[in-house]
Amino acid sequence: MNNIDTKKDLVTQILSLAIEISTTSIIDIFVDFSSHVKGLSIRIILNGWGNSTTHNDYDLNKMIYLDFEDSEQKLQEVIDYLRKIKEEL
Description:
Elements: H1 3-23, E1 28-34, E2 39-45, E3 60-65, H2 71-88
Antiparallel strand pairs: 1-2, 2-3
Helix pairs in contact: 1-2
């Protein structure tokens, strides 16, 4: 598997976990891809979105640039975090 295929697989795992967790709990997970900077933004609010929620309220707020050397490691860290959340549900 080449580098881009590995990154696509990791991003797919993140999106799949985000959908599964967000649809079965109060946890809100936002995943956005910004193609112009090749960046994947992941934001998690463990207590759910509320009227007064701001960017300071995220339990995780991470931007991963897919063309950076450490992107696979950072993607895997998010997957590990999401798996931990899922186990605790």
